[in-house]
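Handout for the seminar on molecular recognition.
Each group receives one record of this type.
Step one: identify the two inputs.
Step two: read the structure output and locate the region that could contact magnesium ion.
Step three: write two sentences on what you found, then compare them with the reference statements printed after the record.
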Amino acid sequence: MTKTIRLTMAQALTRFLSNQMTIVDGKKVPVFAGVWAIFGHGNVAGLGEALYQVREELPTYRGHNEQAMAHAAISFAKASFRRRMMAVTSSVGPGATNMVTAAALAHVNRLPLLLLPGDVFANRVPDPVLQQVESFGDGTVSANDCFRPVSRYFDRITRPEQIIPALARAMAVLTDPAECGPVTLALCQDVQAEAYDYPESFFEERVWTQRRPRPDRDELAAAIAALKSAKKPLVIAGGGVIYSQASKELAEFVEAAGIPVCETQGGKSSLPDMHPLNMAAIGVTGTSAANRLAQEADVIVAVGTRLQDFTTGSWALFQNSEKTFIGLNVQPFDATKHRALPLVADAKEGLLELAAGLQGYKAPASWTDNAKSGKAEWQRAAAKVTGLPNPLANAALPSDAQVIGAVQRAMGSEATVLHAAGGLPGEMHKLWQAGAPGSYHAEYGFSCMGYEIAGGLGAKMAKPNDEVVVMIGDGSYLMLNSEIATSVMLGQKINIVLLDNRGYGCINRLQMETGGANFNNLLKDTKHEVLPDIDFAAHARSLGAISEKVASIAELESALARAKQNDRTTVVVIDTDPLISTEEGGTWWDVAVPEVSARPEVNAARKDYEEKLRLQRVGD
Ligand SMILES: Cc1ncc(C[n+]2csc(CCOP(=O)(O)OP(=O)(O)O)c2C)c(N)n1
Ligand SMILES: [Mg+2]
């Protein structure tokens, strides 16, 4: 007879989660490093009590905002190369919908995240329960239905035994390299507390290993044939290279064939910046070295990338009409984009087999040498913008690029740098000299303001021995900073560099580029009675951080040297110029300019826009 154990659904869930294991660096560790929780009536009695029972093996962490807790969980998974993850639970209603943005972020970035929002009573007796969104035409709808389009798997648990197949499906999604993304299990409040006789076997320890699909023979043969004929081959390294931990295989593949590599935001740090074949950033925020090659390339191996518009310059970057893409990707959805020859496989396995099949092939020396000289030229240009400000230049405030140079000098390439939105992602993509794989942590799939600080906390929890440096603008800081207090509370020290340009600098620049009037982006251009003068250092201090404001790049470097020695989260604030960004490198980005306007600046921008549209290649 099957041995059973009588538990509530919530107890079964937490017991199951704490028995899921994986292997990291040869050591068995739990898949779930913890559960972030803010309790309300929708989860405190059921799931809350169940979490208390497993608090040693599955720790519960309390944050200050559900979205931020989910950001921390997502960042933890990213910094763990998707091997480990966290869950997040909220009450019904606003706590749940606060997590929808984070679910979308995890979905875009293909990162595992287990969301456990409470849900309305399955028995419907108390309806409408506090915070219930009542749908007039559909009795089965609750606020949690918002998660459906942004979940890879969604389920609502209306009976305790449903958790058995739901968790099986959840684990299948969360641990699969191709399907991986957010899973939402909406837990009806009454059902969390309901008991069932669960089979004991359900709670047996399970060890999940990383699945590495190998290429299909025909797809591999087609990819090799295409590459063998290449005169101007190029590799685009995306986040898939990092998650597959395929840097060594990538280096061996490109070194043997003399193929230059460029990196997406997600793929930056696939190769160290100093690798001679690494042209670094590609696309809208790319280096001149990478973009020059992209314009001419004939065979482009796109490894583990979604080929988003920042990578392809909205499909105006690749100008060779004879080009062929090879989509080496674990996910067929991505592998077949833009008429690519699909090579559906894990990046590591795919690169190994491509390398084996290509033996003897070498890209023309002129192409490889051209790449190397382009890189040297770029490095000279980058050194100029990241160097110390020229004391004779008389610029009132430093640029973002100069701040990046200072952070690089003070923290070194070994630190993990993290950023997400604003002017920083573009500047960082171009200018940061990345070290080890994963040391460059950009959330630029969703580019979600407010990811940074909670993300820094999650990354630190995944990499306790690393210095984590969060680079953040004033706008993003004001949107979501509460997890500074959590980082202090948990003793998870992060370094935060806050660039205060008094507004949404990058959008203001974009507005000007598209002919717009300076309007509603920089604080000075907004409707206001009083221009805010925010003391960010005092704000951060009030949350428990060590903080200081610095007045120059030299002061920033010494403040960061002090920050390194601190054992508590440290915030260093510096005023920056909102108007300057690095002109070198980059390529066009499609931002639609109005066809009709009374303003001549818009009409001029539209004319320019229409010319640029002609460069877009669709389907050739
Ligand atoms: C949640 C969210 N809202 C709006 C945007 C659009 N957006 C992108 S960058 C930006 C301004 C960011 O300001 P700040 O953090 O100060 O950086 P800066 O542009 O000044 O460098 C805005 C509004 C976004 N990416 N995310
Ligand atoms: Mg700003």
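Reference statements: Residues 421-424, 447-450, 473-476, 501, 504-507 surround thiamine diphosphate (ligand 1) (CB under 6 Å). The mean pLDDT is 97.
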